Amino acid sequence: MRSPVTRPPRAERSRRVSKALTASLTGVLVASTMSMVAPAAHAADVPAPTAHYDMSHSGTSLLDVSGNNRNASLTGFTDASFADAAGDAVLRFKADGYAALPKGLVTGTDNDFTVEYTVAAQSAANHFGWVIGDGVGPWNTTQLGNHIFLSPRSAQGGYTDQVLAAIRVKSGSSNGETRMPAGGGLNPGFTTLTMVGSGNTLTLYRDGSVISTLTHANSLSSIIPSGNVLGYLGRSLYQGDALLRADVTDVKFWDAALTSEQVGSSMPTASQKSSTTSALLRGDVAATMLRSNTSLDSVSSNLNLASSVNGVALTWASSNPAVVSTTGVVSRSITENTPVTLTATSSLGTLTFDVIVVAPNVATDLDAISLASRTTENLPLATKGAVNGAAISWTSSNPALVTSTSAAYVAPAVGAADPYRGGGLVARPAYGAGDAKVTLTATATLNGQSAQKTFDVTVAEKGRWAPDAGYAAAYFKSDGDEKIYQAATSGNDFFSFSPVNAGQPVITSTTDTKGLRDPYILRSKDGDKYYMVATDLCISCGTGWGPAQSNGSLKIEVWESTDLVQWTRTNGVNEGITINQPEAGMTWAPEAYWDDALQSYVVHFSSRLYNSAAKTNTDNLHARVFYVLTRDFKTFTYPPTEWQNTGFARIDSTVQKIGDYYYRFTKNEEGGAADGLEAGKDIFLERSKVLTAPTTRSDWNADPEKTWQLTDTNMTALETGQAGEGPQIVKLNAGDPNNAGGDGYAFLVDNFGAGGYRAFVTTGSAISSSSQADRLSRRSDWNVRPVGGLPASPRHGSFVSVSQSVLTAMRDWTSVRAVASTTTVTNAGRTVTAAVEAADKGDVAGTVTFTGEGWTQTAALNQRSASVEVPSTVRSVTARYDGYTDGRVTASTSSALSLGLDLSAAVANRCVAGKVTQVVTVTNADSVAADVTVAGAFGSKKMTVAAGKTASTTFSTRATSIDAGTMSIDAVTSGTKSDATTFTVPAPRGSCG
């Protein structure tokens, strides 16, 4: 940051810039001189400006270096918004900020004024470079203030890619805007646009030459605001217009009309602008080149040798194409560090970059691997090095816990190949079994080198399961409210949603574009975690739909949660994850689905794809759908794979597997029928057995074993009367009143122009049976439900099933609380069993402690029960469920169980006078005497057996042989009758013949 006192004048700085560039900028050519005016031999005297902003700044002030102390106030910018172009400051407007101009720069005493504006803009948009006037509002309203504005590169019809300037003074029902005739676009690099108001004439100069004039009948006094703000740099007064995207290096204001000679004398010279353009270009080219490399002195992966940067076309040459090609491909076959000179030739001259390509070290690929120390998911065991491309294989100390790389892996004929070649598949221990540890060894080979590295990983036990008892939703509200909101049902009825968190946003973005749209929640394959992905887009921040599609975010925003209340970034930092390629235009509506074949999550999204990162072509810009793979929502395969490209616009796919097929609902983004799809802006249905199978046509007769077969189209508009997008499909829970048959699904479509989601209730069998001859949407039971029961005004979101504990946490907006438990005990003799049941009917893990007189024993639960053998001295047992380390189920204690008397009995046969006699022997191991009744096929008898004694009784059968049978033993405590014991013993077959 420089003080305006110490900052040298622009002319001096430009000389210093030129000198500084000499070593790196060879043969600089002066920018095109078309429409430029060279300074005259005797330059006209130029009056001092009322304010001069050369993009010096201090904190939130854009400094006025004229000496008049009319600093402008900055909003949205940081120090990083300002670039140093070899001594010349440039404010880089990226639709992220603006400057408020103070009053006094121009007054309304007459119609004379001058604004000089030096700018470079690469993208057309509905944005203002500067405006005199205040009052932001809709078109043709009184909220919209009167003004004069200039747009350096417009997207308006008739002015596309040209300078647009106009004056607006509203009168009656007329909007009052009068536009200056189109005079063309900017010159290459930085261009100075000067507007002069003189009487009732506006004159617009481009680099000193007149390109447009306008005669009007308005008065500047009707435009100059009465408040403290004269106008803005980079902000439109039209509500909904984008903030400026351009580089600005110099702005001056006069409260007077300059002559054409003064206009030419005042502005920066062509050489000065060329120097600034070149210096800025060099820095931007260098930054663009890097990709994943940390510096040009240590290049180990491909460079991005863009064909155009800042709107300047570049042609590349390499001093050693075998090491770095002219497309940026970096060789990994070299054995020593190799210097290479890359030369970019443009209309501004040549830029040279000396790079050093680092010889690959196989260990570097191993050092780049990062595995979670504890995992709940399959592991992304990379088989190709991220730095040098080394071949990597993995072995596991316990393949039953985590699989090794399979040398026999063969890629499928259709769909994505497994990037991990069978490795990294995790078998989590059961809930209650505890975590398990494994050591994984990676072996990397490259250019005859080999290296190994080990990784210790803890495999987490499975989380607690409980039946689903309700539903949750996530959504954003509108183009003006791009935050994530959530809602939950009141119970297990899908149509009973209401907001949670007191209706306040759950996540508000403070990073990247600062907007969140299209949130999608996916439950993990094991069901104990949720992932949420969202579009990184902020239309309300001033981004127009055109720029959003051509230069939108390449990131997705990703979180994870176990309770849908607390969300944490999967990457551990407050920013999104780049998954899209530089040639892409945007990354919209990401969703994810589990792929059974790949044992990974497929993250798919809609995007445009340009011919290059310059994004200059205008053909083949229909939206397509791409996918990447992930196992942890932190690392993703790259680059994205094209999934759907029929030559017509498709967006917003969502997937549901039913039986052996995946069913995919997608929006036809075309304005009308296209490629077999009957209507634009509506939903169609396809099916395939291979989730990642490519789609090149919308085809009723396609083979679903190899691609996606069309099974329905034009599914919602005929019922809703509205265009629809953002389809969602949700399997209804058991017990939901909307799921009487048990096969129910709710299908939802976002009627984005009419209040949000509308719902259809259908079945899995109905979806799976849809065909061209018998379409789901043409059946009599395909009817849109009345409005109600869904979140109010939800836009493009998602719906997911939840357990009772998660539902309660969302309703109370707190962490998940432990559910209550009940413990009961039963016995079979001295074997006592405790059964533990959770209030939500879910899993129970942990231990049970059994207690009796002077005795205790702890046993682990297995299938929600535990058993022990109780000593004979214990006559009463209580069981306490102790809970588990996760604290998800509360402890509970059973009622006392009386075990009665400790008796045993045996039956034997004797022969007496040739007849069978049964002898029953009762042993009393208890501490008290027992009154015993013995009964069998040959009568019953009573006897008292003293404590610690054995007694016998006999039964005469009067038969020479008897069949086997049983005898019952009934006993009570002698005297008190307090303990009772009943059991049976076998009576063996007997014969005396």
From TrEMBL:
The keyword Signal applies. GO terms for molecular function: hydrolase activity, acting on glycosyl bonds. Pfam families: aBig_2 (PF20578). InterPro entries: aBig_2, ConA-like_dom_sf, GH43_arabinanases, Glyco_hydro_beta-prop_sf. The keyword GTP-binding does not apply. It comes from the Bacteria. Keywords: Glycosidase, Hydrolase, Signal. Residues 292-357, 372-461 form the Atrophied bacterial Ig domain. This is Atrophied bacterial Ig domain-containing protein. Residues 1-43 form the signal peptide.
